Each structure stands twice: as C-alpha cells, then as structure tokens.
Amino acid sequence: MSQPVVKLRDIRKTYRSGDLEVHAVRGISLDIQPGEFVAIMGASGSGKSTLMNTLGCLDRPTGGTYYLDGVDVSSLDREARADLRNQKLGFVFQGFNLLARTSALENVELPMLYAPKRAGAAEMKRRALAALAIVGLAERSDHFPSQLSGGQQQRVAIARALVNEPRLLLADEPTGNLDSRTSIEVMGVFQRLNEQGITLVMVTHELDVANYCKRILVVRDGLVVRDEPVQNRSIAFAELAKLHSAESAAKLNAGIKP
Amino acid sequence: MRLLSTTIIALRALRRNKLRSMLTALGIIIGVAAVIAMVGIGNGAKSQVEAQVASLGRNVVTVFPGSFNAGGMRGGWGSTSTLTIEDTDAIVREVNGVVAVSPEVRDRNQILANGLNWNTQVNGESTDYLSIRAWDLSDGAMFTETDVKGATKVCVIGSTVVKQLFPDTDPLGQTLRIRNIPFRVLGVLESKGFNFFGSDQDDTVIVPYTTHMRRINRRTTVSTILIEAASSEEMQSVQDDVTALLQQRRGGREPDFTVRNQLELAQTATATTRVMTSLLGAIAGVSLLVGGIGIMNIMLVSVTERTREIGIRLAIGAHDGDIRVQFLIEAMVLSSLGGIIGVILGIGISQTLANLNGWPVLVSTNSILMAVGFSALVGVVFGFYPAHKAAQLDPIEALRFE
Ligand SMILES: Nc1ncnc2c1ncn2[C@@H]1O[C@H](COP(=O)(O)OP(=O)(O)O)[C@@H](O)[C@H]1O
Ligand SMILES: [Mg+2]
User: Which of A58, A111, A197, B347 is deepest in the core (most CB within 10 A)?
Assistant: First the structure.
C-alpha cells in the first residue's frame, strides 16, 4: 500500500486566552490516502477549522505529530511551512479570497511568484492559463473578480490552488457562499480533479454537499466521532443534468399557461 | 530571484490602486518640487549678487569720505569730503600692492546733445578707472594721461546715455554739453546693468577728474578714492596701509574717512542670500518631511486595509520577508516616483517664476540628485515601520479579518 498523504497521530490544539483554555482539537489520529476525497462535518465550534488549519500548515498543533507526504511537519518553522504551503498544499476558502482589481490570470500566477524556484514569465502565464482551462475559465483570464459571478470566482480560486500541482487540496466551506446550483458546479470541478488523482479534504456542514465526496468524517468537541465512506454518492454532472431538465420543464409549463 | 518576484508583486499592487498610489506620492511630489524651486530661486539670487559684486570691479578698495564736525555738530558719513588729490598721490607713492588708483569726483548734471537733454551721473576719473571697475569699451577709446594732465574736454559715455542722447546716430566724435561746456565723445562703455543698490551703472558720463574739478564743479576735494589691489589676498593689507597712511596725514584729528574693500561688501551681500537660501531650503525640507510622514500614514492605513490580502499571500506561501520587502518596495517606488515627478514639476515652477518675474533661477544637477535620493530614503525610512507591521501578521488571523 502506498504512503498516506496525511498521517495525523494524536493531534491536539489548545488555545489559551488568559486563564481560559479551549481544547479545540483533543487527540485526532487519522490517515488520508492518495486519491481520497474527504468531507469533514460537524457543528459550529467543533474544531473543523482548527483541524484544517493544522492540515494546511497554517498553524502548529500543541501536541501530536503530523506527517505530510511522509515528512514530519509538526515542528517546522514559519518559513519552511510557507514553502510547504506553496509547494504541497492548495487552499480554497469560503470567501474566495481573490485579490481585488487583479485579473484572474494574475491571481492564478500568484503562488508561482512565491515559489522557491520561480518559472519564467511565459511559463507562468502558460501554467496559469492551463489551470484556468481546467476549471473552464480560460476565456475569462483577463476578467477582474468584480466582473465574475461567485461560482466563477471560486473556480478561479481553485485554479490558483492547483497551479503549483499540490499533493493535497484543502477547502474550508468552499460552497458556503454559493447557491445550490453553483455549489453543484464547484463540486463537479472537485470531482473531476479527484478523478485525475488529486487528494481533497473539505469542510462543509451540508450533507448534500458532503455526499459528493467519498468519505465523511464527523467531528464533535475536537474529536472524530464518525468516519465512514459515502453511500449513494452524488455525481455532479448527473445532478446538473437533472436540474437542467427540471428547469426546462418548468419553463415549458410556464409557457403553456395562459 | 525572490527579490525580482517581490518587485513584480509590489508593482502589481501599486497598479491595482492607482489613485491611492498617486495620493501617497503627492506629498513627496510637492515636497521635492518645493525643494527644487526654492533652492533654484536661492541659488539664482546668490549668483546674481555674485555677478553684481564682481561688477564693482577687480579687488577694489574704496576710501569713502567721513563726516564733518562743525563746532560739535556732526554730520553723517559722506556729509563732507576732505579727501584730496594729495591723498591720492600719497597712496600711489607709499602703499605697496596698489596697481591702479582713481580719484573719483561725482556729480549729477543736465547734459545736452543732438537737441536732446538728459540728467545723468557725471564722474571725474583717472585713466585707471576702467581697469579698476573691470569695464571695457564697446566702441572708441578711453581718454589718456595727456587728457588728464591738460584737463581736456573729452568723455566716454554709458549705453543708457547713448540711448537717450544719440538714439539713431553714432556718438563717437560728437559733442555733448555739460554746463554748456562742449565735450567730445571718445568712447562708449559696455553695458553693465544695475548694481545691487539698484542704480543703472550705464547711465553715466566719465570725464578726466582734472577737467571735472577745474571746469565742471570747481572743487578741490574728491568724492571717493578707488584703489585696485594687485590681488584679492593683498586687499586686506592695502586697506590697512591706506587707513594708516591717511590717519598719519591727518595728524591727531578725528578720522574723516572710511576704507572698505570689495570682499567685505561681497560678504555682506552673499550672507543675506545665504540666509535666504537656507531658509527656503529649510521650509522645503520640512515639506519633504511632511511628505514622508504622509507616506507612512497612508502605508499604515493600507497595511490595515490590506490585512486580508496579506493573509492570502502568507497562506499561499509568501515568507514574512517577502511581505516586508514588498511593502518597502512599494514605499520606495512611490517616493522615488514622487521625487522624479517633483523634480520635473519643480523645474517647471522655477522656469515659470523666472519668466514671470525675471528672477534668475538656477536649478543644479546636485539639488536634483539630492532631492531624488533623499525622497527614496524617505520611502525606506517611513516605509519600514508599516512593512514590519505587515510582515508580522498571523496568516489565520489575517484571513479572518473583515
Ligand atoms: N484563535 C483562537 N483563540 C481561541 N479560541 C479559538 C481560536 N480559534 C478557534 N477557537 C476555539 O476553538 C474551537 C474550535 O473552533 P473552530 O475550529 O473554528 O470550529 P469550527 O470551524 O468547527 O466552527 C471553538 O470553541 C473556538 O471558539
Ligand atoms: Mg469554521
């Protein structure tokens, strides 16, 4: 069996503010294999974001060990973690977090500019356009975020997360700001990426959305309380087709009515 | 390599917010433009004063008449003159380092020529006068020693007099009348312009001093004695020796003269303009400082406003150093760009002032280089704190910032 992309052993995170101690994560052990597509679910305040921040090397756990791609990263310094985020991880946020007044192309180029070994300008542009093509936005490369819909902005953000070919794509409530139809479109993009072999972990509190994934973890009070594969997995393009025919039927009905 | 990337990033960030960038640079633009214009005006004034001082002549030591004292009532300087031709002769005879002397007799007179008349300064001088004043003739010749000995009725005239009395004729060889005495015009002086007391140096007629004393105003004393020292180093010793000599010639009497050298005049004059230049420079410097504080102010606001942006950058792999350098480059680019625009604007203002008021304006390469260099430095100094603040942000908190 191949080496897991993520291997957590007894990960803990305690926030301390004054005398008060908040145990946000209290001993999670977990393996995620290459090609998995994991949904993390749980009530608000259960520790999902804290877990994601740890997985994303944005934060250091207060206890336990984290192997990313076989490397112990729990004790790396700020700069080494920054390089790791740049090279091995991709982030998709709930609020898209694109740079305003910056074209889609330049947004996608950004991670390459921070790469330890920067590619030439032409190569950067080529790779950014390729990443935009994967999410179906190659024609919008010169558009500013303000000229794009929410779903399109999130797809630009996904292209940005992909452009350095990460080992792991992390998404914290990526559909939280989207309507149901664009949510399905974004999940469709994730499913396609996953079919191409990319490992994904995403946080959501909608079961509908989680059903597009392959495995669901439920977190409560800083612990994983359930971990099971998805039964009756939803397939995004099929759901979209259903939605489409339902819409045409509705239009037809509206047209017949006097 | 990383520095190049960060430069690209910084330039893109500036381009994203053109209005804010312009406003940030505005303080520096105004500051540098002020420096360039102010120092330009100051230097222009200085060079004008220097030129005027030089137009006084070469290494000139001047003996001015003293005050009279009649039964205890004392007049001011120059209220009477007791300087004589004998004093002049004694100076030539006994003071070392003197190359030329002119006993000067000054008077204003109505003169006539060509059916026109004009009131002008009529001065009696020796043949050395032109050498002492470093003055050349544009036409004709100076009167000679023979003319002085014989007190002949000849003159050389300034260009203003030519304009007034000989508007369309060649004045050489013509006759002009002073107190109804005919004088032949031997030469025309080159134009010298205004001196720094504001009088027109070209509005003058120069005659031999002997002629002036015997025929025009019939007096036995001279107004001033002009002395040319051999070199600027010898001016001081000539001044001292002349003072001692005249003192000795007057026995125990209260001194009725003063001796000044050109250097003293020059120093007083340039001291004034130096004060003016440094005052203008200081004002301009303060406005540059205010510009720098403006940059810091807007950069600090922009760090807060761009917290989320910084969070995004950190999340996708920027090092703390990248953020710091980005903000420093932004500050430096803004301030240097402001400096360059300011220089152009400052030169424009200087030229406009020069054309409008006829002030001389002198913009030196030095002041341009200094203004641009200083504004870049202002960028680094005042950009440092905001950049440091930006680099210290925590990525998670920065991303959560609304
Ligand atoms: N920076 C922090 N300081 C203190 N407490 C925190 C901090 N971040 C999160 N917490 C606490 O940790 C717990 C888990 O938070 P979080 O991981 O954000 O939960 P979720 O994403 O599941 O809503 C919560 O009780 C929250 O208040
Ligand atoms: Mg959360």
Answer: A111
What residue in B sits closest to A169 (Cα-Cα)? B316
- In this structure, the answer to whether residues B226 and B276 fall within a common structural domain is no
Say whether both B251 and B312 belong to one domain: no
User: A45 CA distance to ligand 2 centroid (A)?
Assistant: 7
B172 or B269, greater pLDDT: B172
Same domain, B240 and B163: yes
CA of B323 to the centre of ligand 2 (A): 26
| ipTM passes above 0.90 | yes
Structural domain span for residue B239: 83-255
Domain boundary among B255, B281, B302: B255
> Residue A22 C-alpha to ligand 1 middle, in angstroms?
8
pLDDT tens for B114-166 read: 888 899 999 999 999 998 988 999 999 999 999 999 999 999 999 999 999 99
Is B57 domain-assigned?
Answer: no
Residue B274 belongs to some domain of the structure = yes
For B266, residues 6+ apart whose C-beta sits below 8 A from its C-beta are B50, B53
B370/chain A closest Cα distance in angstroms: 34
In a domain, B264, yes or no: no
pTM > 0.95: yes or no? no
The number of beta carbons lying within 10 Å of the beta carbon of residue B58 is 18
Contact residues of B toward A, CB < 8 A? 1-2, 4-5, 8-9, 12, 16-17, 308-309, 311-320, 322, 395-396, 399
Residues of B in contact with A79 (CB under 8 A): 319-320
pLDDT digits (tens, 9 = 90+) for A7-62: 999 999 999 988 899 999 999 999 999 999 999 999 999 999 999 999 999 999 99
Q: Answer yes or no: do B46 and B113 share one domain.
A: no
Q: Are residues B90 and B200 in the same domain?
A: yes
The pLDDT score that the predictor gives to residue A255 is 64
> Which residue, of B190, B223, B255, is where some domain finishes?
B255
- In this structure, the number of other CB atoms found within 10 A of the CB of residue A159 comes to 27
Task: Please tell me the residue having the least CA distance from ligand 1 atom 25.
Answer: A45
Atom of ligand 1 nearest to the CA of B396: 1
DSSP code at position B200: B
Judge if the beta carbon of residue A49 lies within 6 A of ligand 1: yes
Give the whole-angstrom CA distance, residue B334 versus residue A151.
36
Mutate to test the interface with A, among B316, B319, B326, B394 (most CBs of A within 10 A): B316
**How many domains does chain B fold into?**
2
Whole-number Å distance, alpha carbon B178 to ligand 2 midpoint, is 107
Q: Which ligand lies nearest to the CA atom of residue A62 in the structure? A: 1
> CB within 8 A of B370, min separation 6: which ones?
none
The Cα–Cα gap between A164 and A235 comes to 27
DSSP secondary structure string, A73-101?
A: -TT--HHHHHHHHHHHEEEE-TT--PPTT
CATH code matching the domain that covers A6-253, chosen among 1.10.3720.10, 3.30.2130.10, 3.40.50.300, 3.30.479.30:
3.40.50.300
- Is the distance from the beta carbon of residue A24 to the nearest atom of ligand 1 less than 6 Å? yes
Q: Indicate if B216 and B297 belong to the same structural domain.
A: no
Provide the pLDDT for residue A35: 96
Please name every residue paired with A200 in a beta bridge, in sequence order, or none if there are none: A37, A169
Structural domain includes residue B75: no
